[in-house]
Amino acid sequence: MINFEEELKKFHPSLEVEDAEDAIINQDLTDVADILIGMMKEVKDETLE
To answer: Could you say which DSSP state residue 46 is in?
Structure first.
């Protein structure tokens, strides 16, 4: 039978996972809100001309 307490003591997270997590969090990604704000600014600039 598996002793989950013992298995948890042996567990060490993979460094690759931690590195990937940092890379994902630190990326500056454009989302839908950024695209909509850009489009609204373009329309506003066009109407002011």
So the answer is: H
